[in-house]
Structures are given as C-alpha cells and as structure tokens.
Amino acid sequence: MSVNSLSAAEPYATSKELVDENIYPLNQLSDLLLLMPCTLYQQLFETQSVGKHVRHVLEHYQTLLAGLKDSVQKNTIDYEQRDRQAALEEDPSVAAQAVDKLRTELQALSHQSTDKPIMLNYPIEPPGNSLTLPSSLGRELVFLMSHTVHHMALIRLLCESMNMALSSDFGVHPSTQRFWQKSIR
C-alpha cells in the first residue's frame, strides 16, 4: 500500500482503506520478525523488549477480531481482556505466523462498513466496574493504527539501541508520511 493512495478528505464507504492502512505496519513488523534473532527479540531493556511490544500490538488486533466473531457478545471488545500469549513475545517466528493470520483476517473486514457498530468495554475503578461505550469498526481500525505505530516507534528505538537499522518509515504514522510527501512536492 502506498500512503499516497489515501486522501484524508475522502469518506470511507467500506473499511478497505483503513484495513490497508493497518496492514502496512503489519507488513513492516513481519519483515522485522523474519530478520530478528530470538536473542535480540527477547533482549530486555529494563522491562521492555521488542517481543513484548510486538505481542502487545498483535493481541490488540486479535481482541478486535475475536470480538467481531464472538457469538455471545457479538461486536463487543475489551482490550484489557487479552490472552497475553507468552510465545508471541518469546519467538519471532510465532509472532510472524500470527501477523500472517491477522493480515488475512483483517482483509476479510475490507468489505464491511466503517459504521459497523461495536461496543467497547472499558474497565474503571473500583475493580469490577466498566463503561460500555459505542464505537464502530472504522473508529477501532483508526485506534489500532495509531496504537500500532506508537509501539513500532518504541520498537524502532529498541532496535536502534541494538544497532539494527530499520526503514525510515518504520514507526511513522501514515498521516505523517502523507504530510512529508506533500512537503517535498
């Protein structure tokens, strides 16, 4: 996907453009995972590692997709109720397989309307309480894009500290890339 193909002013009838925009950083993550040795993937910097950030990102996508499939609470998601799969943060090949599956499942959402209703459960204090907030597929895809890029920027810093060079657009939001492209014209 080229960041040129999206126009901020165009309305979205379907989720295709937002799905494509989410797949772009997942492709970058996949490329990184294929090159990254387990030792570097797991290397801790205080409490952080590339693997922990990758797991966190992937589980957010899995949460959305699971909420869309759940037959009991259809279209209800709670990002704090993730599986927290240790294998995703320990083995880059397991994470790469998860990325492949996510890309396929996200592509299946391309035909759905951005207005598709979703309910978001958000835990609040005291423990056991939560807010249930209305959202939409489009809004959640926008959230996941920003969330993913934020963590990829942190992954970039960790990789740079390990002397791993990444592409100049790794961890850069597509809106920033579009701005840069307009600025050089």
Count every beta strand, where a strand is a DSSP E run of 2 or more residues.
3
Q: What is the CATH-assigned architecture?
A: Up-down Bundle
Helix share, percent: 40-55%
Poorly predicted runs: 1-9
Topology pattern, helix = H, strand = E: HHHEHHEEHH
Proportion of strand residues? 5-15%
Please list the strands of the largest sheet in the order they lie side by side: 1-2-3
* Rg value: 17 Å
| Largest sheet descriptor | 3 strands, mixed
Question: Could you please describe the fold and organization of this structure?
Answer:
The protein is mainly alpha-helical and 185 residues long. The chain is 55% helix and 10% strand. It contains 7 helices and 3 strands, in the order αααβααββαα. A 3-stranded mixed sheet has the order 1-2-3. The longest helix is centred in the last third of the chain and has 25 residues, at 137-161. The protein is globular, with a radius of gyration of 17 Å.
Key traits:
globular; 7 helices; single chain; three-stranded mixed β-sheet; mainly alpha; 185 residues; disordered N terminus; Four Helix Bundle (Hemerythrin (Met), subunit A)
Topology, pairings included?
Layout: H1 16-35, H2 38-42, H3 50-69, E1 76-77, H4 86-90, H5 92-107, E2 117-124, E3 129-136, H6 137-161, H7 174-183
Parallel strand pairs: 1-2
Antiparallel strand pairs: 2-3
